[in-house]
Amino acid sequence: QVQLVESGGGLVQAGGSLRLSCAASGRAGFGRTFSTLAMGWFRQAPGKEREFVSAISWGGANTYYADSVKGRFTISRDNAKNTMYLQMNSLKPEDTAIYYCAAGSSGRYTGQADFGSWGQGTQVTVSS
């Protein structure tokens, strides 16, 4: 199973920016490597269910965003480095959550069930 490690979280004031990284190692089912997997970001705020944030296709040509982050967040990936990124700008207090990266090969991009491998999460806190 592919291993995923998030980094880059922290405390930032409203209006600020953070860039999250997700480093992948190992292989997914059927020996699939990072460059062949769809990748996604999800987040879970205190007392709320985990929700979709953004996703990117294996080659990076297709990206998907939740309406709440569209225009503020940008997802990208560097397959040569086995790393995915989430650039978060104009952060709001409601973006406060634990952010998880995920990898999958289902061909779908926005549901938790579409991803089979998950990282441990990184905390993002946005103060007002």
Spans where pLDDT lies below 50 across 5 or more residues:
none
Distance between the termini: 39 Å
How much strand content do the residues show? over 45%
Estimate the mean pLDDT confidence: 94
Largest sheet, strands/sense/barrel: 7 strands, mixed
The overall strand count is: 11
Structural class: mainly beta
The amount of helix comes to: under 10%
Describe this structure in words.
There is one protein chain. This protein has 128 residues and is mainly beta. It is built from no helices and 11 strands. The strands form 2 sheets. Strands 2, 4, 5, 6, 9, 10 and 11 form a 7-stranded mixed sheet that branches. It has a 4-stranded antiparallel sheet with strand order 1-3-8-7, with no helix packed on it. Strand 7 and strand 8 form a beta hairpin. The protein starts with a strand and ends with a strand. The mean pLDDT is 94.
